[in-house]
Amino acid sequence: MISEKDFIQNNYTASVESGNFEWSAPSNIALVKYWGKKDKQIPANPSISFTLNNCKTITKLGFTKKENDGNFSFNLLFEGQPKEDFKPKIQKFFERIFEYCPYLKDFHFTIDTQNTFPHSSGIASSASGMAALAMNIMSLEKVLNPTISEEYFFQKASFLARLGSGSACRSVKGSVVVWGNHAEISGSSDLFGVEFPSTIHNNFKNYQDTILLVDKGEKQVSSTVGHDLMFGHPFAEKRFSQAHHNLSSIKNVLESGDVEQFIKIVESEALTLHAMMMTSMPYFILMKPNTLEIINKIWKFRNETQTPVCFTLDAGANVHVLYPENVKEKVLQFIKGELVGYCQNGQYICDEIGLGALMI
Ligand code: DP6
């Protein structure tokens, strides 16, 4: 089994003075949710997600050799402008991954990053952002040690991304990714995300995700605080074993193409995630009235038209509407006609399953 030690790079002999790389990495949407973690970003339960295609972060990493004075040195630009308030997060990320990437203190970096989705849209950019940065760091590592394999490159990128933000480890690859040890998923690991190993039924190819922006405000609960709520939570152990069970079920569903069962698992997972927040101490309600309006409209539409459309939620009020590609026109018409009115400024984003990080 692969252990953390396997990701310590102490075999870099090549040298480089300066250069730059550019990678894009997408966001992802969990079907079985990660909620609760142990020390060192180890998840309390396994999760599975669809990698998205359009919502992504594009990050350019410039590097110049410097004296190793024991410090990290970097500038940060967001959409071309210096962004001081993002710096502590990057500093902390560098500190966490330094053990595995000891060359980080040998360079001065310029990190130039932008998102394809609107700023403060309520869409978490930590997954795509950390994944894009991790890919760039691995490109540098590959220059310093050209012997690393393609498999190691992507595994370590996911491993590093996880240390930045747990869900980010699921944004390196597509189109369906599992993170966390699970008895029935071969190769699964708590340390990095792996591509779903079985063949995915055609019903789930090109699955669509339309993100309805219900509330674009600042997150009420940061994910770090949120995960901590699972410590001492009265339902924690049950929830963690339920996630294992739901992952087994969704594995069968993705193989067999059973969309009806898919809907049940995915919606139940979303509501369970919110139920965990509502029953923790302190407790939170992250849905807004319009979130519930949308859910009820989706249920009504599904009942009346038998269209296989369902919803999922992150730790916020926005609604991800999931549906197969062959009902796209019908669902978009429904969204435009009946759901857009519940979105802040009528805003929504059309996305679909994608393939993971790409070098530009
Ligand atoms: C509700 O990955 O944002 O989206 O590891 O603290 O950065 P950190 O948390 P984060 O948590 C995401 C939680 C979730 C569910 C999921 O994506 O699985």
What key phrases describe this protein's structure?
Mvd1_C; 8-stranded mixed sheet; single chain; alpha+beta; Ribosomal Protein S5, domain 2; Alpha-Beta Plaits; about 350 residues; binds ligand DP6; 2 domains
Question: What does this molecule look like?
Answer:
This protein is of the alpha+beta class and 360 residues long. The protein folds into 2 domains: 4-199, Ribosomal Protein S5, domain 2; 209-352, Alpha-Beta Plaits, CATH 3.30.70.890. 34% of the residues lie in helices and 23% in strands. The chain is built from 8 helices and 14 strands. Strands 1, 4, 5, 6, 7, 8, 9 and 14 form an 8-stranded mixed β-sheet that branches. Strands 11-12-10-13 form a 4-stranded antiparallel β-sheet. The protein is globular, with a radius of gyration of 20 Å. The structure holds ligand DP6. Ligand DP6 binds next to helix 4. One of its GO terms (biological process) is isoprenoid biosynthetic process. Keywords: ATP-binding, Lipid biosynthesis, Lipid metabolism, Lyase, Nucleotide-binding. This is Diphosphomevalonate decarboxylase. Residues 211-337 form the Mvd1 C-terminal domain.
